[in-house]
Amino acid sequence: MSRTSIEQRPIAGRFRRSRTPAAVEDRTSLIGHRWFTPYLLSGPSMIMVSVLLAFPVVYAVWGSLRDAEFLGGPEEFVGLQHYVDLFQDPDFLWTIARSLIFLSGSLVLGLVLSLLFAFALNKAAAYLRFLRGVTIVPYLVSGVATAVMFRLLFNTEFGQVNKTLEFFGIAGPSWFANKVFAMAATIIAQVWSDLPLGVLLLLGGLQTIDPSLLDAADVDGATGWQRARYVSIPLITPQLALATAWLSYSTLTSLGVVLALTGGGPVNATNTLPIELYETAFLDLAMNEALAIVVIILALNAVLTLIYVQMSRRFDIGNS
Amino acid sequence: MSSRIYNQWMAAPLARRSIRRLLVWIPLAMLLVWTVLPILMTLSISFKTRADVFAAPQLIPREPTLDAYRSVIDRQGFRGAFVNSVVVGLGTALLTLVVAVPAAYAFARFRFRGRHLLLLFTLIPRLIPGLGLMVPLYRLAAALGAIDKRSTLIVVFTGTVLPLAVWLLVGYFQQIPRDLEEAANVDGANLFERIRYIVLPLAVPAMITIGVLSFREAWNEFNLVLALTQTPGKRTLPYELWLMTDTTGFQDNPGQAAFAMLTLVPFVFLYLRIERYVVGGITSGAVK
User: Fold this and answer.
1) In chain B, how long is the greatest CA-to-CA distance?
2) Which residue from B59, B183, B283 is facing A201, i.e. has the nearest CB?
3) What is the interface pTM, i.e. ipTM, of the complex?
């Protein structure tokens, strides 16, 4: 019974029409499509990417070269005027400097913690699944919610950080009233939010390392530190470069965390490029100038990425 | 680890072994504290009264209360923003799949003129940050009269996740053996039927990953909501939460904490079932 019932239900029965498979002889072409089918299938995606992602970049460059005499007035070509104005404005140069401080602080802390946690997770064996699950939690928390959490954590009166410092007999600072500490708190919050991807990328790299290489180093009498420094880290250079590029991309364009944590304060101490962009565009309503800031951020991003690629080439094991 | 090294390990003095063990467990403990403490403290404060936040700063609330949650839920704008977030999140996940699946199928299965160039053109915009889109898309939406609309948010968020979605799906579709489809082809299945009955059932894990990632993106997005909505009642949760923190004077700490916890609600339900998919998705998607 079983046999016949299977034969009576051929796979083809699931399909309504049974066409003559004329094109089947040609293995590269599956029937049921014309030359334009792939264009039709990928068309909607192409259009959305063009309009929503590619067009804005072109528009930003174009719009940054124009200006209106008054708000909402007709726009005219003004050349590089906005860029000249921005780079002659000491406040804007300070904003770039603060962004770079924020960036380097986040990169150092982010990479050190990513490496430390990735190496530890790589040895966690039985608990790996659980710990990796914990690691990705910040990935699910929005930037604004992250900021709310760190405002509470760093609160001068009841925050857990200052309570802990107090326990060790240290008087905790008032984090958001002091320029340096406000920047430090912002860096920590930003790194918290970005770390899951850094850790997972590096862990993925570590897990692909051939254990025999580490065994060989062990036989040669390498210490744990030496194995990490001269075997593991060079082997995960591609992942390190990717993690660096990603951390830096995310930090440089972070608006939600900074805006909700410090709002750029105290006295502009955490006023980074994204905050400047937001204020120029949506508070001062100087849209064309804001577009110039957009272009500067995009350019900075591109330059940094190129630098990381160059550096990763130099540190790659093949060249060392 | 080879048995030789294991023997060496066992032969090592006890002290050295425990030091090695500590070298792994100290960072792991740090990882736990680092990740969990901010959330734990927020959770704790969300169950306190405003006065107890100061009077009883310990982690376990003295008299746990749901007052903060009640006040947030009754807060003007919260329910509307929650509904907006749910609609926009689910809409984005759905639209992303509807647009990305055919595109990825085309790139994975067909050899057509300009295929590589078009694929690159789809993937490279992944590097454009949402921050850079704020002003141009605001002007575009304003010109089209599309400000303050959920559909605008859905379409824009879909655009920002499409490169990742197409990238993940192309890789996944390529792993599905071509023979399966050729067999169906012999049986007369047309393109739509092959996708519907062969490719999609096999690609369920990838589609769950993409659904979750695009939902998360839409649920947590702040920059573009800031740019594309202006009226109360049209915003999503992160914007409302920011407005709550952006007041001068006395801060409603338990309220903010409760709000932050409420923004995590969908992930609490999804999390345990999807952790595997998400980990795979974010690492292979690499950026963002």
Assistant:
1) 75
2) B283
3) 0.88
